[in-house]
Design brief:
With about 350 residues, this protein is of the alpha/beta class. The protein folds into two domains: about 15-25 and about 255-355, Alpha-Beta Complex (Aspartate Aminotransferase, domain 1), CATH 3.90.1150; about 45-255, Type I PLP-dependent aspartate aminotransferase-like (Major domain) (Aspartate Aminotransferase, domain 2), CATH 3.40.640.10. It is built from eleven helices and 13 strands. A seven-stranded mixed β-sheet has the order 2-8-7-6-5-3-4, with helices on both faces. Strands 9-10-13-12 form a four-stranded antiparallel β-sheet, covered by helices on one side. Helix 3 links the parallel strand 3 (about 95-100) and strand 4. Its cofactor is pyridoxal 5'-phosphate. This is Histidinol-phosphate aminotransferase.
Length: about 350
C-alpha cells in the first residue's frame, strides 16, 4: 500500500432492505414504471456502450440546456470527482475542502498524494469567506471542492460569495469544483449560464437525488471547452453502462415526468420540516437548520442515542457524532414513512422529558 493511502478506511454501506431508509438522501419512490422496459430486451449487451452513452449525454443536454460538447457523463458523481483529482493533482498540491462537506472530496485528494486543508464552516454553516480568501492567497490551492447546497448542512451559499472564490482562485491558478447534486431542490443554479464564462469552474450534477436514479449511477460534469478536452483524455472510454444509459435517457426525455416527481418530493420535504420543527421544540438545545435539499440537519448532543433509538424501530437516519459535528441528518420519505417517524420521535420526546 502507498504511504498516502495508509489510514484510509472503506466506505461501507450495509444492505438493509427491511428498514425505512431516511439516511442516504435518496428519492423515496421509483420512476421505473415510466420506462419502457421492453426496449431493454433489445439491448446489445455484447457491445460496448458508445452509442447509448452518446444518447444519454444528448438527452441530458436537452434536459439541462447545457451544450452537449461541454458535458461528460460519469458512473455517478463519485467517478467524476475521482477523474478530476486524477487530472489536476500532483503529489504535494494543496486542496481545500470545507468541514463539514462530502467526504469523497478529501479521500480522492489524499489518494493522489495532495495536501488537504480543511476549513471549518461558521457556526451557522455559512461560508467563512474572509478566511477562505486569505487562505487561498497564502496557500494557493490547486482545487477547492464545495457542494452547493451543502451536504450535510443543507446550506445554500450566496452567488456573490462563490464568485469571490472563483476570482481569488483564478489569481493563483486554482479551480473551483462546485458540486450541485441537490440544486434541483434549491431552484435554478446561478452558475448554469456562467460556467463557460469562467476558465476555472467545474459544475457537477447527478441523477441520483431529485431525479430518483441513484441505482443507475449517473453523474454529469459541465465545464468549458479546454477543461472538457483535457479531462476527456483520461476518462475511461466506456464508463457508463448501457442499461443505466438507456433507462436514464428515457427518463430525461420525459421532463414532465421528472418535473412532477420533483413537486411530489418538495411536498414531502415540507411535511418533514413540519415534523422536525415539532420535534426540536421539545428538545433542549436542539436546532433544526433551514435546508435547500431533500434532507434536514438537526444539531443535538444526543445524536447517536436518537439514531440508535430510531434504528431499533426500523428507521435509519444518518448521525454525526464527533468533535466537528454532533447532529442527525434525516431525508424526506413517503407519507407512511413520515407517520412512523413522527410516532417514533414523539416517543423519544416523552422519554427525553422524563429524563430532564
Amino acid at each position: 500500500m502507498r504511504k498516502a493511502l495508509q489510514g484510509l478506511v472503506p466506505y461501507k454501506v450495509k444492505p438493509e432492505s427491511d428498514m425505512i431508509r431516511l439516511d442516504n438522501n435518496e428519492a423515496f419512490m421509483s420512476l421505473l414504471s415510466s420506462v419502457d422496459l421492453g426496449n431493454l430486451q433489445e439491448t446489445l449487451i455484447h457491445r460496448y456502450p458508445a452509442e447509448s452513452s452518446e444518447a444519454l449525454v444528448n438527452a441530458y443536454g436537452r434536459f439541462s440546456g447545457f451544450p452537449v460538447d461541454n458535458i461528460i457523463a460519469g458512473n455517478g458523481s463519485d467517478e467524476l470527482i475521482t477523474i478530476i483529482a486524477q487530472y489536476f493533482l500532483d503529489p504535494g498540491d494543496v486542496v481545500f475542502v470545507l468541514e463539514p462537506d462530502f467526504s469523497m472530496y478529501e479521500k480522492n485528494a489524499v489518494v493522489m498524494g495532495a495536501e488537504v486543508n480543511r476549513i471549518s464552516l461558521n457556526d451557522d454553516f455559512s461560508l467563512p469567506l474572509e478566511k477562505l480568501l486569505a487562505e487561498i492567497e497564502t496557500k494557493k490551492p490547486k482545487l477547492l471542492f464545495l457542494s452547493n447546497p451543502n451536504n450535510p448542512t443543507g446550506q445554500f451559499y450566496p452567488e456573490a460569495e462563490i464568485e469571490e472564490l472563483i476570482s481569488a482562485l483564478r489569481q493563483v491558478d486554482g479551480v473551483l469544483i462546485l458540486d450541485e447534486a441537490y440544486i434541483d431542490f434549491a431552484g435554478e443554479s446561478p452558475f448554469a449560464k456562467k460556467v463557460f464564462q469562467h476558465e476555472n469552474l467545474i459544475l457537477l450534477r447527478t441523477a441520483s437525488k431529485a431525479m430518483g436514479m441513484a441505482a443507475l449511477r449517473l453523474g454529469f460534469l459541465i465545464a468549458n471547452d479546454q477543461i472538457i478536452e483535457g479531462i476527456s483524455c483520461i476518462k475511461p472510454p466506456y464508463n457508463v453502462n448501457t442499461v443505466s444509459a438507456q433507462i436514464g435517457t428515457q427518463l430525461l426525455e420525459n421532463p414532465n415526468v421528472l418535473d412532477q416527481f420533483l413537486l411530489v418530493q418538495l411536498k414531502q420535504v415540507a411535511e418533514l420540516e413540519e415534523i422536525l420543527n415539532e420535534f426540536v421544540r421539545k428538545i433542549v438545545g436542539a436546532k433544526l437548520f433551514p435546508s435547500h435539499t431533500n434532507f434536514f440537519l438537526i444539531k443535538m448532543n444526543d445524536a447517536k442515542a436518537l439514531a440508535d433509538f430510531l434504528y431499533e424501530r426500523k428507521i435509519k437516519i444518518r448521525f454525526f457524532n464527533d468533535d466537528v459535528l454532533k447532529a442527525v441528518r434525516i431525508s424526506a420519505g413517503t407519507e407512511e414513512e413520515h407517520a412512523k417517524l413522527r410516532t417514533a420521535l414523539n416517543e423519544w420526546s416523552e422519554m427525553y422529558a422524563k429524563r430532564i
